[in-house]
Design a protein that fits this description.
The chain is an alpha+beta fold and 762 residues long. The protein contains 25 helices and 11 strands.
Amino acid sequence: MTEVNKPSEPGGGARAGGWTRFVTARPRLSLLLALVITALAVLAGSGVADRLGSGGWEDPAAESTYATKALEREFPDSQPNLLLLVDARGASVDTPAVAAEAKSLAARLSGEKGVTGVGSYWQTGSPSLRAEDGHEALIAARITGDEKAAADTLDRIAPHYRGAHGPVTVKVGGMVAVRHDMQTIIKEDLARAELIALPITLILLVMVFGSAIAALLPLGIGIVAILGTNAVLRALTSFTDVSVFAMNLTTALGLGLAIDYALFIVRRFREELDSGADPLTAVGTTLRTAGRTVLFSALTVAVSLAAMLVFPQYFLRSFAYAGIAVVLLAAAAALILLPAALVLLGHRVNSLDLRRLFRRGARSRPSGAEGTAWARTATLVMRRAPLFAVVTTAFLITLGLPFAGVRFGTADDRQLPSTAESHVVQQHIREGFPGNPGGDLEVLAEGRATRAQYAAYKERVAALPEVASVSGPLVKGDSAYFAVQPKGESVDEDAQRLVGDLRALKTPFDIKVTGTAAVLVDSKRAIADRLPWAAAFIAIVTLFLVFLLTGSVLIPLQAVLLNALSLTAMFGAVVWVFQDGHLSGLLGFTSPGSIETTLPVLMFCVAFGLSMDYGVFLLSRIKEEYDRTGDHERSVRLGLQRTGGLITAAAIILAVVMVAIGTSRVTNTKMLGLGIALAVLMDAMVVRSLLVPAIMRLTGKATWWAPGPLRRFHERFGLSEGEPDAPGPETPELEAPRRGAGNCATSHNAPEPALQDGPRGA
C-alpha cells in the first residue's frame, strides 16, 4: 500500500504535481496578488451599472430596426418616447385653466435641450390623446440621443414637470421613462438581493461544512468572481452594448458556481486530510481529482452560455459575456487562489468547527455500514429502476405541459411594479384612452412617388381586414410615413399577421414596417433561424466533452437528454405563473399575458449549463469508482452516495441565490431567478437522485461501451479524474477494466468500504 505522506520523486507524483507546484509555490504571494487584482477590479468595475442598457430585445439587422432608425431620423415627431400624462383632477381637460396650463407645459418642454417633436391634445385635438372620461390627456415628445444620453436628459428635465402644476397633476411616462425606471429598479433590487443572499449563503455553508473557516472560503471565491466580472462588463461597454439584466446573472452565477466549485474542492481536501495526508499532498490529490472536475464543469457551463452569442439581440449576447466571464473567473479562483489558501490553512481549515460532536459520532460507525440516506436511495432506485424511470419521466413531462400553450410577446412597462410611475402612465393609457395608443404599426415608404400613388396605397392598406384606421402620409423628400392602427391588441396574432400582410403588398416604392408587433415578428424570426444552430452547438460540444470525461458513447447522450428533461418543470412554471398570471398576487407582478421572446432561450442556456455542472460532479465520481472496481452498479451507488449530499447542498445554496434575485420587482428578473431556482432543485433532487441512477441501472455495463476507434481516442486524449495508480500485488482485483483511464486517485490505494460516507461529506 502506498504511503500517502511520503514525498514522491521530484517532478511528479502524488505529493506535488506540476500544477500543484505552480499554484502553491508562493501561496502568500498568490493571495496578495489576488487581493491587489481584486482591488483593481473594484475600481475598474465601478459605475458599470450606469453604463448598461435596458433594451436589446430587437434584431439589429431586422427590417423593423432599420425602419425605426430611419423614422427617428426623417420623422422624429412620429416616434415619441416621452409622454406626460396631464390629470385635470376631476375637471375636464377642455376647461380654459387646464388647457392654458397644459399649453404652457408643452411650450416649456419644446424649449428643452435634447427634446423634439412636442405635440399635445391641446395642440392637435386628436381624440387618441384624450382619455375617454375627459379627465386626462397627453403631451408627447421625443428625447433624442442614444439610451444613455436620453436617460441623462430625462433625469435633468423630469423633476421640473412631475407633480402638481396649478390645476393639473403630471406624471412622466413613455418608453424612455420605462427603460430608465427598469434600470434604476434593477440596480436597487440587485443590491437588496446581495444583502439577502450573502448571509443566508454563509449560514448554509456553515451548516454544510460545520467549520466557519471552511465556509468562508467559497464565499470569498464568489465575491472575487463577481467583482472581476463587473470589471469585464465595464470594459465591454466601451465597444458594445451590454444589458443591465446581465448583472443579475453575474451575481447569481458568481456566487452559485464559485460556491459549487469551492464546495467540491474543500470537501475533497478535507477528506484527504482525514485519510492522513499532509496539506500539500492533500492539495495535490484534490487538484488532480476534484480540480479536474471543476475545470471540466466550467467548460460545459461556458459552452451552454456561449450559445447565446449566436443570437443577434444584445440582450442575449450580454448574458453570454457576463456568464462566460464569471464562470471562468470562478473556476480560476477555485483552482488558483483556493489551493493557495488551503496550503496555508492546512488542518486549520476545520477551525471553528461547529459539528465536531456530530462527526465524532459519525466516525464510530462500522466501516461497512450501509446506513446513509443516499446509499439507501441509490439501492432502492436501482432495485426498482423501470418504475422510477417511467414515473419520474412522466412526472417531469407533465410539469412541462403548460409550455405547449406559450404565447410570445415583447417586454413593456408591465415588467415594472404597479407603483412605478411609468407603469402607471402606460396603464392609464391602455385602460382609459381610445384606440390603441402606442400600438400602431409604422410604415416607412422610400422612393419617389406621387400623391396619387400614396393615396392608392393608403386605400389598399385600409381595406386589409385587420386594420382599424390609417393615417398619413407625412412626406419628406423621397420618404413618407404612414401609421396603421390594428383592430386588436398591439401584439396579438392579428397584429402579427397584419405585419406580414403589409410587407407583402406590392407597391411602386420600398416599404419597411416597424412598430411593436413588427419588432416581435422580427425577433421571433431571428430566434427561430438561429435556435437550431445554438442547440446544435450546445449538443455537439457537450457530447464531445462528456465523452472525453467518460469514454462512453451512451453517457453523453443520456446527459444531454436528461438535462433537457430536467428543465421541463421550469418552462411549465414560467407559462403557468408568469404568462397565465397564477400566483401573480402572491409574487407581486402584473402578467402581460405573454412571455418575452428571448427569455426561454436565456433560461434554457443558463439552466442547461447548471444542470451539466451537477451532472459532471456525479458522472465523474461514478466514473472514478467504475475505473477503480469495474463494478457498474456499485459505482453508481457509491457515486450517488459520495456526491448526492454535495450536489443537493450546492443546489440549495444556488437556489437561495436565485430566489434572492427572484425577489426583484422587475418581472423578467423575477422569472429568471425563480425559474432557474426551480430548475436547479428539480435537477438535483429528482433527475440526479432518481432518474440518472435508474437509467444507468437499466443500461447496465453497456453504459460504458464505445467502438474501438473512439475508445482508443479517449485513451489518448480523454480527461479523467486523477491519475492512474500503478497496479500493485496488494490490489490486483481493483484494476480498472480499461487500463490507463485513470482512477479518481484517492490518496490511498486500498479498497474503500463498500458504502461508507466520507466523514466530512457535504
